[in-house]
């Protein structure tokens, strides 16, 4: 598919599905993302569970069990295990495992408000990636709102009283993996023979085995098994809830990407972050207040709301857009480019 065709397909996403499906899938993703952030924070920080990798393994296993049971009961359909099917999914599993592990690591090491702020960079990364890969264009107000988001995130991060270089590295890697996985997921949903459930199942299947092996070699699995909290019913309940919510989140991401675009899915995450950030100031006990940090947080959230409003209310830009459009795309020599 050539770049022009890919861009045209991306612009048609909004018209392909009913508005109720688009909004419903977006709200479903927002709710799932909010709940799993709180539950993961409880398991990793409140109960001090030592291994975010093993928590991720539990979420992958839950995804496999639920989808396989649904396939056996003929509630859903997706292809049987086949080498060609596995190759169709690649490289999505690699992006997802990076997204999963770095996301859990940053959740453990950062306060909820700072986690929320730094996740805003995903929007900029997704916009840039779609501009380069899909040759999409964005209106000036949309680009300015992204600039506001990045400005607020920078201000808030500069005054982070609990600065942790390793945690910042994890969250920025998580942003990059999220952006790449979002665009890749959108592409894989169009691959013949996979479908939403096939993408979910085989993605988890290819991820879980190497992740388990990695946890064995690093000692994470041993630490998780020896964790004293297994004797507490409350912890076990939260752990199982996190595992189930891992499946729900992965499904909601695929569903939202199917009915919308990768960029819209990222925007929905920004809407969810408004609630997470301000609740995290009062819940969790690991937020160190400062006025500079709070100001940056508020600017970031304001930009996120404006961005979300513009995204869900503006029509996709036409190819003959006027001066109000700011083309954000990769510079490429048209004489040297050729359709793929």
From TrEMBL:
Region described as Disordered: spans on this chain: 318-340
Limits of the Sugar phosphate transporter domain: 32-308
InterPro entries: Sugar_P_trans_dom, TPT_transporter
Pfam families found in the cross-reference section: TPT
Keyword Transmembrane included in the entry's annotation: yes
Record's subcellular location: Membrane
Primary localization class, coarse: membrane
Swiss-Prot/TrEMBL keywords: Membrane, Transmembrane, Transmembrane helix
Highest taxon in the source lineage: Eukaryota
Biased composition range(s): Basic and acidic residues: 326-340
Transmembrane annotation, as ranges: 24-40, 52-70, 141-159, 165-185, 197-218, 230-255, 262-283, 289-310
An annotated GO cellular component: membrane
Nucleotide-binding keyword on record: no
Membrane topology of this protein: Multi-pass membrane protein
Protein name: UDP-N-acetylglucosamine/UDP-glucose/GDP-mannose transporter isoform X4
Source organism: Betta splendens
Source taxonomy: Eukaryota, Metazoa, Chordata, Craniata, Vertebrata
């Amino acid at each position: 598919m050539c770049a022009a065709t890919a861009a045209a397909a991306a612009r048609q996403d909004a018209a392909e599905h009913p508005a109720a499906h688009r909004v419903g899938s977006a709200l479903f993703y927002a709710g799932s993302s909010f709940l799993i952030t709180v539950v993961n924070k409880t398991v990793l920080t409140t109960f001090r569970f030592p291994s975010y990798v093993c928590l991720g393994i539990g979420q992958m296993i839950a995804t496999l069990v639920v989808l396989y049971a649904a396939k056996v009961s003929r509630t859903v359909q997706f292809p049987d295990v086949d080498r060609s099917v596995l190759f169709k999914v690649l490289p999505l599993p690699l992006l997802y495992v990076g997204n999963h592990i770095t996301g859990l690591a940053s959740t453990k090491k950062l306060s909820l408000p700072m986690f929320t702020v730094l996740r805003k960079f995903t929007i900029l990364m997704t916009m840039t990636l779609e501009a380069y890969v899909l040759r999409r264009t964005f209106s000036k107000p949309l680009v300015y709102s992204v600039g506001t988001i990045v400005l607020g995130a920078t201000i808030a991060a500069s005054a982070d009283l609990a600065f942790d270089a390793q945690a910042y590295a994890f969250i920025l890697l998580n942003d990059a993996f999220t952006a790449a996985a979002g665009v890749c997921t959108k592409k894989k949903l169009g691959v013949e023979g996979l479908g939403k459930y096939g993408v979910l199942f085989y993605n988890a299947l290819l991820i879980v085995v190497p992740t388990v092996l990695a946890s064995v070699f690093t000692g994470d699995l041993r630490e998780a098994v020896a964790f004293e909290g297994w004797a507490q019913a409350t912890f076990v309940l939260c752990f199982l809830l996190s595992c189930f919510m891992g499946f729900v989140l992965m499904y909601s991401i695929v569903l939202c990407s199917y009915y919308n675009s990768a960029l819209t899915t990222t925007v929905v995450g920004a809407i969810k972050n408004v609630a997470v950030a301000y609740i995290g100031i009062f819940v969790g006990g690991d937020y160190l207040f400062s006025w500079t940090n709070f100001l940056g947080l508020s600017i970031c959230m304001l930009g996120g709301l404006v961005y979300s409003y513009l995204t869900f209310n503006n029509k996709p830009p036409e190819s003959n857009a006027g001066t109000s459009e700011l083309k954000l795309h990769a510079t490429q020599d048209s004489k040297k480019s050729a359709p793929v």
